Amino acid sequence: MGNKVGRPSKKSVGMAAVDAKQQIIDAAVTLIRKIGADQLTIRRVVEESGLSIGTFYHHFKDKDDLLMYFVKEESFAETTLHVPLSDPAGRICELYMHLIRRYMDLGTDFMAKFYTTGNKALSSYMGTETGAFAPDTVMFRCEQELSAAKDQGFLSADSDPHELSEDICTLVKGCVFEWCLSSGEVNVEETLLRILQRYLRGMLTK
User: Fold this and answer.
1) Residues contacting residue 35 through CB under 8 Å, at least 6 positions apart
2) Residue ranges per domain, the chain?
């Protein structure tokens, strides 16, 4: 038996919800490119998307939750890596490139206005809570990979995987910033790999 007249199917309702969320995301991308993440407001997103404030809050808790979408959409816990643990620099570069390629897809015009000191979502994601990285983040996975490399003897016994991961996160931010400054001219993967190789060189045991 079909649906009652005038009542949308569950499938159509679900599709509409997905479309509404994407409209909000697309509106945020447009606005960030125009005015930057710091000037983004829920009201501006709602006006740009043509949706209601209620619809916005159905999908996102607040502005920071929306901005977090752009850095936390993917869980890095299950990311498959092909570079062996015996090459820590190459493996960590491969890991971070999963995130950086998402940035590159958004474009330098977006990232230059997203990577700001006022973007609390970004600083929260790339920071620590009580001295630890949040699970599923790229930094958490980076620390796990470095710990595994240390346990298998590829990094020196006195190396600190957490401290190394904090430093590497800073190096990655610098590479992304340089990519933005060069309007995409910099080869991020080559640059990051070269820097990581130099940074980790003194800690390699094999």
Assistant:
1) 44, 113
2) 10-60, 72-203
The superfamily (CATH) of domain 10-60 is Homeodomain-like (1.10.10.60)
Six-digit token string for 161? 């995987």
Question: Is 115 within 8 Å of 103 (Cβ atoms)?
Answer: no
169, 141 contact by CB (below 8 A)? no
What is the distance between the alpha carbons of residues 35 and 47, in angstroms, rounded to a whole number? Answer: 14
Compute the distance between CA of residue 181 and CA of residue 179 in angstroms, rounded to an integer. 6
Q: How far apart are CA 15 and CA 18, in angstroms?
A: 5
Distance of alpha carbon 103 from its chain centroid, rounded?
A: 8
Whether pTM exceeds 0.85: no
60-93 per-position pLDDT tens digit: 999 988 988 887 766 798 899 999 999 999 999 9
196-199 contacts: CB < 8 A, separation 24 or more?
196/88, 196/89, 196/90, 196/92, 196/93, 196/168, 196/171, 197/89, 199/89, 199/167, 199/168, 199/171
Residue 4 sits at φ, ψ, to 5 deg, of -65, 150
Question: 134-165 pLDDT, tens per residue?
Answer: 888 899 999 999 999 999 999 999 999 999 99
- Which residues have CB under 8 Å from 113's CB, separation 6+? 32, 33, 35, 36, 37
Q: Give the N- to C-terminal CA distance of the chain in Å, as an integer.
A: 69
